[in-house]
Prior knowledge:
The protein has 6 helices and 16 strands. The protein is α+β, with helices and mostly antiparallel strands. It has 2 domains: 2-116, D-amino Acid Aminotransferase, Chain A, domain 1 (2-Layer Sandwich), CATH 3.30.470.10; 130-279, D-amino Acid Aminotransferase, Chain A, domain 2 (Alpha-Beta Barrel). The strands form 4 sheets. A 5-stranded mixed sheet has the order 9-8-7-15-16, with helices on one face. A hairpin with a 3-residue loop joins β13 (240-245) and β14. α5 (208-218) crosses α6 (265-279). The longest helix has 15 residues, at 265-279. It is globular, with a radius of gyration of 20 Å.
Amino acid sequence: xxxxxxxIVALDSDKISIKNRGLLYGDAVFETLKVSSGKIFFxxxxxxxxxxxxxxxxIDIPMNFTMEFLQNEILRTVPDDSTTTDHRIKMYFSRKxxxxxxxxxxxxxxxxxxxxIEGSFYIIDDSDYEIELFKDHLxxxxxxxxxxxxTKTIHVLGSIFAQENEYQNCLILxxxxxxxxxxxxxxxIVKDNTVITPPLVDGCLRGIIRKQIISIVDQLDExxxxxxxxxxxxxxxxxxxxxxxxxxxxxxxxQYRNKTYVNQVAKQILPRLNALMRLx
Length: 280
């Protein structure tokens, strides 16, 4: 038997086992999805990112884990009696329990969680949104930092720092002291007519919306695009900053220290992002 927050449950119950390798060793990856009226937005991109992550972590992928199978598993998780057609889905994949640092098996286990949300498509939030750098801890540049693993200690501590100091978000740095990402998404900056985002080799998440934004900007004649390292000193010199993730789409930043920002490019990109959602 196991005690989970005061509740005594059996190891073979429907609760997560205390032997779960994601819990013990961070040996797991996850995907966060947005579902509306039975449609999974950007599902193909999510699926292939998940498959690539499992391969990098050397977790065996079952033969039946096709796009169609996992899509059906996701949609079966959405309750039939839900009062909303819009849901946030979290898919969690870990290596099966057993072993210490060396696992007994590379077989996979998973769970899927559904949470109702409001709003199918993305909108711009124009309210005040102030950010700061989180410098207490740094992430490592490289391949593993680009994955959605459940080893998110820096992001948790950064969120506590933001809450304690009344910031809406913080930016994370890598060991080279370059800006990598926000606590909950990728970051884009705009200087003159150029949209810039940190490269994956700096350690930023291989974001699903990041990919869509890059594709959209490449089609805008009035803007250039650069994927390059971003210094914290640049933040005070740019015209616009926005953060992207699959749940909010685009979140404009209004202030960093004594600098305020416009919200022009984000508003141009948003309708195109919503149009891509309709096509997926």
